[in-house]
Structure formats: structure tokens, C-alpha cells
């Protein structure tokens, strides 16, 4: 029945109904034909009984006298009567079974054995129109005044009865076929109309692009039936999904600002320290303006400090600028990420291990913005998890044709709530940000995967991104 499974439900049900109707029609037709056969058998038995009884009354004295000519004359007159059209042949024999007369003397000669004619003959009560032959043979005793004086053999033509039976069968087949066809069409249209909400629901769940759309109220069945409740439940689920997506979007925006706040604080700390040194340099230049070598060294130190501050500021602008076009990831993007994470590393006195394969970056055409966002978010979380004097690492290389970005850190490992945000698709639990969930959503939109492991005190998160990944505008 594997071929039956892919057939739509709106066709399965009419087919099953048609099959049931065929079964019922077949049983009903058999009952009708059986009843017709019983009526025909009763008619032919009654006709044969009247024929035999009439001949017994008329031929009894004649057979006793052995009056052959009177017997023949009586048979001839009986053959010319109404029943003669049914009785195609009648033969009368004496007690010894010797034929006295027959309606067809050539076929049944006088003084022949009547057993030769009645080879397939049956008794009166066993007479039945079975359809095997158009001619029925009957052999009955010739009784006169309670005494059997001879035998009567008769052949009956039942071709009209068989034709009537075949005609009835043809009418039954045609009637059943027409009824099944009409009722199947009506059933198909009715079931298809009844299943219209289910069809609409399936189309809404499979054919809509992006977010799901609710079923229009105008096509939801009236009342409180199963299909109406199903459609309303689906619309409620669509509303809940839309509300959840909106809430996650707002949380993502909030987390973005929180991350920017953390980054700004770290940058302010990083910039404030060099500024103090630069102010000292300016004081040195003012104090020793008459000493060219001191001024030159101070100018060089001032130049390096200002360039450092410029690089930090530029990297921050590049990270937070909304580009109208998707820019392909380059090796400089990882250098910017390293520069951006350096203040947090310095503040926590972390040991940073950095390994980026230039060939892997250039060979994989992936968008720069999403990769920068994923990497920076994971590194910020890794710095927080590692704590003071911990260890944080990043490695970017090519693996199985994908760009693999691995972030490691020492610490106690990620709690269950954080793992649910990073690896799960369920609703966000109260408290905490959505930075890890944002990492997952961006990776999924690019067709990538995320794996997590915690071994020997080291937490390892690997993001595998295929080439030519794309993200939605909302996430960019």
C-alpha cells in the first residue's frame, strides 16, 4: 500500500467511499440476481408441474390402453397450446420406459428407450435455470388415479429467462457504475470543500516564505467544529511566533547596545592610559624644547600613541558602521577584532593566543560583518568567562571546505542557560542577554553550525561557516 500513501486526502476518501460502494453494490447485485433466480426457478417449476399434471390427466387412460395415436394427438394439441412455446419437446413412455409417442418422432422414435432422451434430465423439484444451457430436461412420472403408469420426458426452452437475467445483470452493473461515479464526484467535491481549511493550513505552513501568515478569517469554517478550532489554533500560534520574534528582535537590539557599552567602557580605559602618557610627552617637549634629541624621541612616542588611538577608533567605527553592501571577509578584519578585544584582555590581564590562517580567510568568500559580530561576541563572552589572569584563544582555519572559527577560554564552563541560548532554538529564559542566541541565529542564517565542548578545564566553541554565506538584512 506504499503507492496509496502519497495520494492527497481529498482523493483518498472518495476512493475509499467508491470502493465501499463497489463492495456494497456487488453484494446487493448478487442478492438481486439470487432473488431473480429463485423467482425464475419457481416460475419454471410451476409451469412444468402444470404441464406434467395436465398431461397425466389427459394421457393416463390412453397410456393404460396403449393407444399410441391418441397419445400422439394429445401431445400434438398440447404442443400447439400456449405452453408449447416453452416445451420444445415432450415424449411419453409406458411403465417399461418404452416411448409411445413424442412431439418430434424423428428425434425420439416410437418404442425407443426414454432413458436416451432423459440422460441429463432432473426431477421436477430439482428443476433450476442455472445458465449452463438454454434447454432444461425434465423427467417426471406419469401418474393416473394414484398409480404410476408411465413417464414423461420434457425439454424446456429457458433462453428468454437467461436473457432476462443477463439484462438484469447489465442494468445492475450500469446502475451501480453510474451511481458510484456520480456519488464519487459528489463525495470528492464535498470532501474537498470540507478539507479546504486543512489544505489552506498545509499551504500556509509549507509555501509561505519567511515568517508564517495567519489563515484569513473569511475562509475559516463557521461554528466550533474540529477544523474551525484547528484553524483558530494555528492563527494563535502564528501570533505567538510573531510576538516571540519581535521580542527576540528587541532583546537583540538591547544586547547590541549593551555590548557596545561594554566595548566603549573598555575602549575608554584603553584610550585613557595612552592619553596620560601623551600628556607627559607634551610636557617633556615644553620642558626640553632646547634639546632636539629629546624633542625627536618625544615626537616619535607621540606619533606612535596617536596612531594607536587612531587605529582603535577606526576599528570601532568599522565594527559599528552599517554598510549598504555586504563586504567579503579579509585578514584585516581579524586584526581589527584583535585590536578591539585588546583593552578587555589588558584589563583582565588575560593571556591571548591568536592563530589566523591567511589562506583560509582568502579562500572562503564569507560576509565580513556577520563573522566580525560572531567572533567579537564570542571573544567578549570568553574574556568574561576566563576571569582574571585566564587564557583566551582564537583560531581561524579551513576545515572540510568551510571556514572554522574556534574560540577557547579557561574557566568553569558555560552554564546550562548559556548553552541553551547558543545551541537551542527554544524560548529564552528570563534574565541575561541574547548575545549567544544572536550568534546562533547569524550562524544558522549563513548555513553554518556551532559545536561546544568542555575538556580539561577548557571551553571550546567552534563555528563552521560555508563559503558564500548570506544573512538577512535584519541580522546584518
Automatic annotation (TrEMBL):
Domain HAMP positions: 192-246
Keywords from the UniProt entry: Kinase, Membrane, Phosphoprotein, Transferase, Transmembrane, Transmembrane helix, Two-component regulatory system
Domain of life from the UniProt record: Bacteria
GO CC annotation terms, alphabetical: plasma membrane
Enzymatic class: transferase
Predominant cellular place of this UniProt entry's protein: membrane
Cellular localisation: Membrane
Domain Histidine kinase: 266-469
Keyword Zinc-finger assigned: no
Listed transmembrane segments: 168-191
Signal sequence annotation: none
InterPro entries named among the record's database cross-references: HAMP_dom, HATPase_C_sf, HATPase_dom, His_kinase_dom, HisK_dim/P_dom, HisK_dim/P_sf, Sig_transdc_His_kin-like_C, TCS_sensor_his_kinase
GO MF term set: phosphorelay sensor kinase activity
Keyword Signal attached: no
Reactions performed catalytically: ATP + protein L-histidine = ADP + protein N-phospho-L-histidine
EC number(s) per entry: 2.7.13.3
Name of protein: histidine kinase
Organism: Marivita cryptomonadis
Organism lineage string: Bacteria, Pseudomonadati, Pseudomonadota, Alphaproteobacteria, Rhodobacterales
Amino acid at each position: 500500500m506504499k503507492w496509496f500513501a502519497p495520494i492527497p486526502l481529498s482523493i483518498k476518501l472518495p476512493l475509499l467511499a467508491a470502493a465501499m460502494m463497489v463492495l456494497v453494490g456487488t453484494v446487493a447485485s448478487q442478492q438481486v440476481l439470487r432473488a431473480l433466480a429463485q423467482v425464475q426457478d419457481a416460475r419454471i417449476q410451476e409451469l412444468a408441474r402444470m404441464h406434467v399434471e395436465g398431461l397425466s390427466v389427459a394421457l393416463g387412460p390412453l397410456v393404460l390402453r396403449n393407444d399410441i395415436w391418441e397419445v400422439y394427438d394429445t401431445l400434438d394439441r398440447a404442443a400447439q397450446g400456449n405452453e408449447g412455446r416453452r416445451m420444445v419437446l415432450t415424449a411419453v413412455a409406458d411403465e417399461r420406459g418404452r416411448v409411445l409417442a413424442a412431439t418430434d418422432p424423428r428425434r425420439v422414435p416410437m418404442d425407443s428407450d426414454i432413458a436416451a432422451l432423459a440422460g441429463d434430465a432432473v426431477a421436477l423439484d430439482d428443476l433450476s435455470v442455472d445458465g449452463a444451457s438454454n434447454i432444461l430436461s425434465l423427467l417426471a412420472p406419469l401418474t393416473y388415479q394414484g398409480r404410476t403408469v408411465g413417464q414423461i420426458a420434457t425439454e424446456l426452452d429457458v433462453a428468454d429467462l437467461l436473457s432476462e437475467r443477463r439484462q438484469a445483470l447489465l442494468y445492475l452493473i450500469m446502475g451501480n457504475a453510474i451511481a458510484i461515479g456520480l456519488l464519487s464526484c459528489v463525495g470528492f467535491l464535498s470532501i474537498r470543500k470540507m478539507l479546504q481549511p486543512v489544505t489552506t493550513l498545509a499551504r500556509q505552513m509549507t509555501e509561505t516564505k519567511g515568517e508564517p501568515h495567519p489563515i484569513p478569517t473569511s475562509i475559516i469554517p463557521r461554528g466550533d467544529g474540529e477544523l474551525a478550532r484547528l484553524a483558530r489554533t494555528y492563527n494563535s500560534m502564528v501570533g505567538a511566533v510573531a510576538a516571540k520574534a519581535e521580542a527576540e528582535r528587541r532583546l537583540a537590539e538591547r544586547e547590541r547596545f549593551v555590548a557596545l557599552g561594554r566595548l566603549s567602557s573598555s575602549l575608554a580605559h584603553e584610550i585613557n592610559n595612552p592619553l596620560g602618557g601623551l600628556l607627559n610627552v607634551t610636557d617633556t617637549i615644553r620642558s626640553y624644547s632646547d634639546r632636539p634629541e629629546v624633542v625627536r624621541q618625544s615626537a616619535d612616542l607621540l606619533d606612535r600613541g596617536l596612531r594607536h588611538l587612531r587605529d582603535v577608533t577606526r576599528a570601532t567605527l568599522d565594527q559599528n558602521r552599517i554598510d549598504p553592501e555586504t563586504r567579503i571577509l579579509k585578514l584585516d578584519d581579524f586584526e581589527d577584532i584583535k585590536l578591539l578585544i585588546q583593552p578587555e584582555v589588558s584589563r583582565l590581564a588575560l593571556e591571548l593566543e591568536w592563530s589566523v590562517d591567511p589562506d583560509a580567510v582568502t579562500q572562503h568568500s564569507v560576509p565580513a560583518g556577520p563573522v566580525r559580530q560572531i567572533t567579537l561576541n564570542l571573544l567578549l563572552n570568553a574574556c568574561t568567562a576566563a576571569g582574571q589572569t585566564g587564557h583566551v584563544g582564537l583560531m581561524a582555519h579551513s576545515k572540510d571546505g568551510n571556514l572554522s572559527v574556534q574560540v577557547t577560554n579557561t574557566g568553569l564552563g558555560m552554564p546550562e542557560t548559556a548553552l541553551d541560548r547558543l545551541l537551542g532554538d527554544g524560548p529564552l529564559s528570563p534574565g541575561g542577554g541574547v548575545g549567544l542566541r544572536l550568534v546562533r541565529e547569524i550562524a544558522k542564517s549563513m548555513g553554518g553550525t556551532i559545536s561546544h565542548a568542555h575538556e580539561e578545564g577548557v571551553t571550546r566553541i567552534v563555528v563552521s561557516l560555508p563559503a558564500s554565506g548570506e544573512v538577512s538584512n535584519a541580522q546584518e
